[in-house]
Design brief:
Number of helices of chain A: 13
Largest interface: A-B, 36 and 46 residues
Number of helices of chain B: 19
Oligomer: heterodimer
CATH superfamily of the largest domain in chain B: Periplasmic binding protein-like II
Mean pLDDT of chain B: 92
Structural class of chain B: alpha/beta
Order of helices and strands of chain A: HHHHHHHHHHHHH
Helix content of chain A: over 70%
Low-confidence stretches of chain A: 276-280
Distance between the termini of chain A: 37 Å
Chain lengths: ~280, ~425
């Protein structure tokens, strides 16, 4: 009995190991390429040997170059600042809006909710020109506001909060009202603390949105001091010239903050899933 | 928060006062571009707020920024064939009165033509380009194939190139997969390299007014040329499918995975990254019985028609496209200058046979891409078509279908 389960485990691990290799090999190759001195992309790929994946003379010179000479650190700080600001504002604004849509009755509520739903179904490209004209007229183009504010107006976040708050029993709030709590107090002290899973989901969603945004930052800001991560990565590729060393090292450096965030938030994800299971 | 906003707006207003111009530029390496910008700033006292936009997002960004119509950016980079599109919509300042005949005479005729629309000069040539067949001498030697001719007088035909490519497509380790390809095309689906093939057969790629593609990209000549292109990938299998990134094509050639590459002049510089390769250049082929046509065209510089800083914008445009700056730029970046005086000024660079061949092509066989206000849609849809064809789609039906779609788009410019 014991022996059989050991075999089963072994086979399972072997199969999983092989499957994970398919996902890992390209990543390992990118990491290896970034750790090599600037060299032709295919020099180590043809023929494919262990040298393709393990640099024989590993060096950090590519990373030093992008941080020291190309100011990649500034791009990371810009993206972090924009992402964190957007997260804070979005969680506040969207949760309040979601709260109102879930728990209050007012005229036009269904219409308003429909509009919110539509906003996140319209492709961004179709609103980018009016949006750009709007921020120009507000005189906030080429500022951090231009990067942050459009991200805060997030219909999907409002929708998520609204769905989550609908599940919170109204009895709790009625009890609090009878005890004399204001609506804001109920929202701030009772509803918000209950909605950690929803908040974590929104944090991750907004963070990924801002961290990966490329086109809007190019349109909305033009000074290099506002350069964000994806722009700093994309600039290494063009028809005439591609710097693989810069491209790979900046892609790796640029993917570390999201990875760290995910590792940090992982336990909340798990808690969020089990939490919703209990409530059902 | 409102106070903060006000302060930011005020600060911005102060910073963007009269002596700063806003420039939207191609995403060339920052350290290269800034050398020129800093030199300009020192010389003129005009400050430049320059944005380097990655190539992949460049054209969309220009579209959105210009659509706002508020006069910024003051100066912007223009891909030559887009001149007509921007000019037709009033985005570009007409430049005839700002440039003297003497200034104009510095540029190649094909470049001036590319920067003009309906007889008016709109975008100043910054670079130009040419292409030919780069070949790897080591591979030719190894398989006993004679080196390619390197003068325009001995220009090869496409039929000859195909035969050589067949000989040099090799499966070196017998695993049934090709290890060395006969010919890679650097920009596999771009009209830039494919048009000269069909033009060699006498095909016209668009109507004279630039608004009709049916009957042109569906002509027998166009389809014959495109069928040759199709055969490279599908019948003779001498060219690899799916190399839809020019950097990857260069890697194939640079690392000895391709015997020949139909590619651009910038490879003279790019191939320095591959110290082992010994290559030669053969002129852009033509079809038996046809004429020699070569691609050309590159980046231009345009001034926003609504700029509020015309004087400074002009100063910058003349500086950056002027002889001194273009010499510096060529040394930094290696792009082919559009000014003949730069070729004369740098004999140590251009006196080699490969450059001489390209210069000769630019002066004699170069044909700019067609001028149409709908160039970007036209090119985009043709690229889709060429892409399908290289994967095996039937040339005639694919082109007939795309011509209908292209003409539907071009109709709105009538």
């Amino acid at each position: 009995m014991k022996k059989r389960s050991l075999w089963k485990t072994l086979i399972l691990f072997a199969v999983l190991g092989i499957i994970s290799l398919f996902f890992l090999i390209p990543l390992i190759w990118v990491v290896a390429s970034a750790l090599r001195p600037a060299s032709p992309l295919y020099e180590y790929a043809n023929p494919l040997t262990w040298k393709s994946f393990i640099p024989t003379k590993p060096t950090l010179e590519n990373f030093v170059h992008i941080f020291v000479n190309l100011n990649f650190g500034r791009a990371i700080m810009n993206s972090l600042f924009v992402s964190v600001s957007t997260i804070v504002l979005t969680v506040l604004v969207a949760s309040m809006a979601g709260f109102a849509l879930a728990k209050f009755e007012f005229r036009g509520k269904a219409a308003l909710f429909t509009i919110v739903l539509i906003t996140f179904m319209v492709p961004f490209e179709s609103i980018v020109i009016p949006l750009y004209i709007l921020i120009k007229q507000l005189h906030i183009d080429n500022t951090y506001w231009a990067l942050i504010l459009p991200g805060v107006a997030n219909g999907l976040a409002i929708f998520l909060f609204r769905q989550f708050f609908s599940e919170v029993p109204s009895e709790i709030m009625e009890a609090a009202r009878i005890d004399g709590a204001s609506w804001f107090r109920i929202y701030w002290r009772i509803v918000l603390p209950l909605s950690v899973p929803a908040i974590v989901t929104v944090i991750v969603m907004v963070f990924m949105f801002q961290w990966n945004s490329l086109f809007w930052p190019l349109v909305a800001t033009h000074s290099s001091r506002f350069e964000v991560v994806q722009v700093a990565i994309a600039v290494h590729r063009s028809t005439e010239n591609t710097s693989w060393a810069n491209l790979f090292s900046s892609a790796i450096a640029g993917s570390l903050p999201p990875v760290i965030l995910f590792l940090f938030l992982q336990k909340y994800f798990v808690r969020g899933i089990s939490g919703t299971g209990l409530k059902g | 928060m409102r106070k903060l906003l006000l302060v930011i707006v005020l600060l911005l207003g102060v910073m963007l006062s009269a002596t700063t111009i806003e420039v939207l530029w191609m995403g060339w390496p920052q350290d290269q571009v800034m050398q020129l910008v800093n030199a300009f700033r020192e010389e003129t006292g005009i400050d430049v707020d320059i944005q380097l936009v990655p190539f992949g997002q460049l054209f969309q960004t220009i579209e959105v920024r210009l659509a706002a119509g508020d006069g910024t950016p003051d100066v912007y980079i223009v891909d030559g064939p887009n001149t007509a599109s921007y000019a037709a919509r009033g985005y570009l300042l007409p430049l005839n009165e700002h440039f003297s005949d003497e200034e104009m005479s510095a540029w190649f005729d094909a470049s001036i033509e590319e920067g003009s629309f309906l007889g008016t000069f709109y975008s100043v040539p910054y670079g130009t380009s040419s292409a030919g067949i780069f070949y790897n001498k080591a591979i030719f030697e190894e398989y006993g194939v004679p080196f390619l001719p390197e003068t325009v007088e001995e220009r090869l035909t496409w039929e000859e190139v195909a035969e050589i490519a067949k000989k040099l497509t090799k499966d070196t380790n017998g695993d049934g997969r090709t290890d060395i390809w006969g010919l890679v095309i650097e920009q596999i689906d771009r009209p830039y390299l494919i048009f000269p093939m069909v033009q060699s057969l006498g095909a016209k790629v668009l109507s004279d007014d630039g608004l009709v593609s049916q009957g042109y990209i569906t002509s027998d000549e166009f389809i014959e040329g495109t069928t040759f292109y199709w055969k490279l990938f599908n019948e003779w299998k001498v060219s690899p499918q799916g190399l839809n990134d020019s950097a990857i094509s260069r890697e194939y050639f640079g690392t000895g995975r391709a015997a020949m590459m139909l590619g651009n002049e910038w490879n003279i510089r790019r191939m320095l990254q591959y110290p082992d390769i010994d290559y030669g250049l053969s002129p852009f082929p033509y079809f038996e019985g046809g004429v020699a046509v070569t691609p050309t065209g590159s980046w231009h510089v345009g001034i926003n028609s609504k700029t509020r800083k015309l004087e400074e914008a002009l100063t910058f445009t003349k500086y950056i496209t002027g002889k001194e700056a273009v010499i510096t730029w060529h040394k930094l970046n290696g792009i082919a200058p559009a000014r003949s005086d730069v070729y004369e000024a740098l004999p140590e660079v251009f006196d080699n046979p490969i450059w001489q061949l390209f210069v000769k092509e630019m002066e004699t066989t170069a044909a700019p891409r067609p001028r149409t206000p709908g160039y970007s849609q036209y090119e985009l849809m043709l690229r889709e078509a060429f892409n399908s064809i290289h994967y095996g789609a039937d040339p005639r039906s694919t082109l007939e279908e795309v011509a209908v779609r292209i003409d539907r788009e071009l109709r709105k410019y009538r």
